[in-house]
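User: What would this chain look like folded?
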Amino acid sequence: MKGLFTIGTERRFVDELARVVLAEHADDPLALADVLILLPTRRSVRALREAFLRAANGTPTILPRMAPLGDVDDGEWEIASGDGDALTLPPAIETAEREALLAQFVARFKDDQGHPIAQSAAQALKLARELGRLLDELAIEGVSFGQLEGLVEGNFATHWQRTLRFLAIVGETWPQVLAERGRIDAIERRTRAIRNQAARWRANPPATPVIAAGSTGSQPATRDLLAAIAELPQGAVVLPGLDRDMDEASWDALEPSHPQYGLRELLLALGRARADVEEWPGVASGPARHLLLTELMRPAETSEAWIKPDAASLEHVTRADCATPHQEALVVALALRSVLDTPTRTAALVTPDRELARRVTAELKRWNIDIDDSAGASLADTPPAGLLHALIAAVDSGFAPVELLALLKHPLCTLGSERAAVLDATRRLDRKCLRGLKPAPGLASIRALVEQAKFGDADDRTTVRTLIDRLDEATAALVARMQGESAPDALLDATVAAAENIAPPETLWAGEAGSALADALGRLRTAWTGQPAIAAGEWPGLFAAMLEPETIRPSFGRHPRLSIWGPLEARLQRADLLVLGGLNEGTWPPAVETGPWINRPMRKDLGLQQPERRIGLSAHDFIAALGAERVLLTRAERVGGAPTVPSRWLARLDALFGYEPGGSAPVPEYIQRGRRSFVAWAERIDRPDNYEPWLRPEPRPPVEARPTRLSVSSVEQWRRDPYGLYARRILRLEALKSLEEELGAADRGNALHDALDAFLKAHPSGILPPDAVREFEALGEKHLADLLTAPAERAFWWPRFQRLAHWFVAEENKRRATGARLLDSESKAAMTVGPASRPLRIEARADRVDELERGAWEIIDYKTGRVPTKDELDALFAPQLLLEAAMAERGGFERIDGRAETVRLSYWQANGLGDGGKVSPIKDSDTLVAEMMVLVEKMANHFAHPDTPYPALPWPAYGPHFNDYAHLERVAEWSTAGGGDE
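Assistant: Here's the prediction, encoded as structure tokens.
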């Protein structure tokens, strides 16, 4: 068999290829060993091997030699092709070593102000990877660095000219660096090997068959090899999905973003026309599907000639537009799972969206399915690598509580002890020592917290001390190394040594993940040896960047009939169901980016392909997959809360059949199929058949457990949320403080109260002195010092305090001019209510009590936050001042003799806003106080009865503004028990 052939996208490529090759050699099966088949990737080689087994019906068969064309590691191809001379090429430089060397170049590149363009070693490494991709692209397209020098004086902005000069330097220096090491770039080596092979085959054509199948010839070297194979006496080139029926006007109008563009360019390079390409022997599927694929991708220039395919051409296609990425992953998982109900059937998800692939992998776990993902998993996400990341982060943060606990709670962390003992000590450290404000950096601060903490048992303190001591010993060398400048290889050594102190080496490096990590670290250690030192604090970012491209692929244990493929891996492969996921613009097709090193005009001047070529390759992959036996198309309508744009190919499919989303036209059947099946299943699968929510919690504790002493703030909680009072005072449940808490509104309020109290005690009566504002500000500096350490905090809050100081002094002088004087501040008071058999003592601490005139008092409550509304006061849901007034009328204040005849009540908003503050008096306070006393007496008697419950939020509209017990009250559950909205 000789010449140019094509296998249509609606046919199974590898199965058709295997069937015909076997048939060609049916008379002499041993001759198959002389056949060489070159395919695009290693995965397509494996797919063809499996296709030969299927075609032979399990009969033992000698297979032809098969090798990948496109893989960078071409040793297998050299051996299979008999290219012994290729072994004489210099070896390829290791990827990690190449990136480390290029990162040096990037780190030395400075802008016009003399500042490095890379702000960190990690950024330099990431830019080095982009630089490496540019070098590979130049090598693939055969562009010399000398051409870059010619662009320097071009009509480009200054920064682009500077970049071009830098690239010219790299182009001059990089070959010297490689020559010193006796290496060449991997892409350059592969390109040379392919071109050498093409030249040898032209000079000495092999006497045995050579078949190149599935390649689109997107690279010049590959096109050269395909041209040589096409000229061989027994050479055949089998193209994937050439559209031989496209009209000439459309063929001539193809743009780089069209799926047929690459094949057209390949035929031009081969000097052939479409008429020279024959259909691969066999029977193609019906013309309806072929027409669908052709018309779907008709160029815009000839769209007036669109022919609407018959609706039957979409019988094999289902589309599912999902609300969110989570639903899309569930829809895909359901589709894949449904295939397993039929023995021997297979399914695959094809997507460039790695996040979707991870979500689908997770969703399939609900059926205990481990799917085979061709891209593998990120090595950085494995437990051994996670331990190293946690270790570096903990040391870099000075053992801050969050990072410290992440390290100690890592499942591999043992510190030379039993894991259970370490975890027990870590939990005690967490609960007793680390909650609250963030301590100063270093384990010394952690030790101080351990000594200050209250442990129920002295042995517990000793256990935690031992834990910290072991951690200190394990990490001391790494801590010292990370405190100043250090070389990456030394940091890597110190990190590995510390990790082996924290986790047993036989556990750390065990299994596939441990072995892969050890191998990766070994390569990185070699690559970064001798590299310049990096600044303190850069190691976490650089280490993460080093491991970022590393992946791990499990060698066994994956499902044999389900797969996840990237678009490249999916080429030439087929499954009974193909799910094409992530069909949104920017994902599939990908976003068009030129990269950080050269722009579009530069690419044009250099003769490089524009980024739209990637869209053309993606389109070819999409069309090839759309021709499968059964296809499911999926996308998420919103990602991260933002609406998405459907892939242009979905939009074309809608337009081809006259459907406009949101329009009056009926929804096509292929979309309705998705809604009726997979989307409906996804909406239903996690919905219980019978939802019976629990009722509102209404605990009834025994009378003897009920409180007999409450503060006025507790009375407010009792009024608004009895269950909250039950949880706090009877169950004694307190909210656990957060790790690394920041000083917040409550702390500012307390500090401000202290400053006001100190000022009033210094000046209890009389007109204030002339320097009163300055004195008040000095008290503010003293009491708010811890809150104003950060420049941003001080810039925001201190001007507000200064406005408050001026307003407060002016307001005080105005009051004092009328004879008002301070009776007491932070004044304690109490009274007793309820039945004689079980009296309830209510206690208060009034912010301030003034005497306006003899027998007339005013109780003031400072508010730095919200003030109760009139509605809350009238409904008696803000009882604090009302109860304090009742105490004043009963003579209940400890440090104030006598009782008030009349009491005024007011809130002072001391927040520094507007003029600095505001006085908000409570109107009709006498009436409200009397009503409050009737209510509190009634509540005290009512809750003294054992059958009285403590319900959760009996008046939801007046619930507490800050509720630590909302998760225990399960409001969202019982508030919808009737089936309505919450």
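Confidence is low (pLDDT under 50) at residues 72-76, 978-982. If you want, I can go into more detail on any region.
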